[in-house]
Each structure stands twice: as structure tokens, then as C-alpha cells.
Amino acid sequence: MITFDAFKPTEGTPIYQQILLYIKRGAIAGTIRNGDELPSRRVLSALLGINPNTVQKAFKMLEDEALIESQAGAKSTMTLDGEKIAKLREEVLREDIRSIATALRQMGISREEAIRLLSENWEETES
Amino acid sequence: MITFDAFKPTEGTPIYQQILLYIKRGAIAGTIRNGDELPSRRVLSALLGINPNTVQKAFKMLEDEALIESQAGAKSTMTLDGEKIAKLREEVLREDIRSIATALRQMGISREEAIRLLSENWEETES
DNA sequence: GCAACTGTACTAGTCGTATAATACAGTCAA
DNA sequence: TTGACTGTATTATACGACTAGTACAGTTGC
Q1: Which nucleotides of D are covered by protein (CB under 7 A)?
Q2: When you count CB atoms within 10 A of the terminal residue's CB, does the N or C end of chain B come out lower?
Q3: How do residues A67-82 score in pLDDT, each as one tens digit?
Q4: For residue B80, which phi and psi values (nearest 5 degrees)?
């Protein structure tokens, strides 16, 4: 069963997108594996304190991307393979790196300073 | 006069927030300085192809944060000093670093791998 | 079989983002 | 002074995100 203990929603971005990213990043990290069960829509929405329809929207998009399988009455399960995970890495990880590099350059940060900042602030972040 | 040549709006985040960030990052980089004139609401909205009210909202928030001064009939100007810029660095730069570190850790990326990825993708980004 | 779960679908309402159109007052150069 | 710019304010409209409530059908364990 996939847990959402580490899920910390942020203000400003749609919750369903954050759920999507949470699952994708877990798949990239390997903490979420093929066949893993997801909590039901109702349970997860109660757990996160949001509307069931918001969870449903996120799960629907995961299914459209063929990352989960759902059928009425049973819990949804992850459907992952090496190819899909590689695609996720390219999609999520690459985009994250690209956007932070652009932002830092806009602030006049040099590559060396960027590396120093990232390295120094690595410990302080809570996973 | 502050230019918006390097302003590339992204989908998914409100435009007025992106304008805010663009100005703040410019101030942090030092490319935007105290006393610099901003384009008028109407001119900038036409330049960016967006509604004047959207620009007005961004400028209103900049004024609420005391980063610009406005008076009817005259162009708005930046009001920066060392303290404000230091505060912006803490607010924008720190948050950017913190969020990317969290995201990368969620994907199971090690500190060394993160540094390698950032370094490798530094060149490819266009400022 | 039955109860309690599961996924799925639909309508209605609120709120924030953004657009559109308009109006009024202050500044400034010709 | 006059006209073209400036900032500021208002109202109306559209759309997406999110909430709220309800309904129905399939699965599972007892």
C-alpha cells in the first residue's frame, strides 16, 4: 500500500497536480513499485482533508498516462515498467533541473555558487 | 527603463506572479536597480499580449511590498536598497533552492548526482 | 446473499485568474 | 493650454480549480 505520509501540499499549485507529481517522483525514486496498491479515493481524500473529486481527477490522469490500472470495486494498482520509469525521469527530473537552472541564472548566480548553495542546503531539507 | 525581453511566461502559474518574480529576480541579479523606470501598465500589457488588469495586479503587489513607487501620470520606479535586496534573496533564492532540493530527494537523487545534473544542464539553459 | 467497501459519474456552487470595456484624475512635453 | 500619455478604479464575463452532495454499479469478505 502506497502511503502519503510524506505528502506536504503546497499553496499556489493545484492539489491534483501535486498528487500526480508525488506518485511520479515516488516511481522514479523506486519507493513506489509495479503492482503497489493505492489507497481508495475516499480514504485518501479523507486522509488529506480534500474533496474526493480532486483525488479522482488526479487518479484519472494517472490512468490516462497508463501509470495505474483501475476497475470498479477493486483498489487501483501501479502499472510500471522500466520504459515508463525512464520516461518519467526524462519528463519530471529533467524539467525540474532545467527550471531551477534557468531561475538561478536569472538571479545572476554562477554555476559554482549554485552548486555551493545546493550542497549547503541539502541537509536542511526534510524528505 | 526595465525591459521584458527575457520574460518567457510559463503555463500553469499565474502571469501576475511571474511578473513579480521576474522583477524580484532582476533586482537580486542587479540588472534592475534603484530608480529604474518600469514600462507603463498599458505598454507592458500590449508588449506581453495580456490584459492591462493583469499587469496592474502585479504592479499593485510590488507597491504593497514597497518595491516600486507609483503616482498618477508618471511612470512607476523601483525603490530598492541593500536591505530590501537581501530580503529578496532570502525570500526567492532560498525558497528556490529549498524546493528543488526537496524534489530531488523525493526522487531518490543523491547530493552528488544532483550536483552532477545541475552542472551538466547549466550550459543548455538559455538565460 | 448481504454489508461494506470499491470505482465512476453527474450537477451545483464558490473562488481565483484573466479578459474586456470603460471612466476619471494627474503629469508632461509640445 | 492642450493632447497624449500616465496611474487608478469599477463592473461584467469566462474559465479552471476545488468543494459539496448524490447516485449507481462492481468487488470482496463474512
Answers
A1: 5-11, 17-22, 25-28
A2: N
A3: 999 998 899 999 999 9
A4: -115, 150
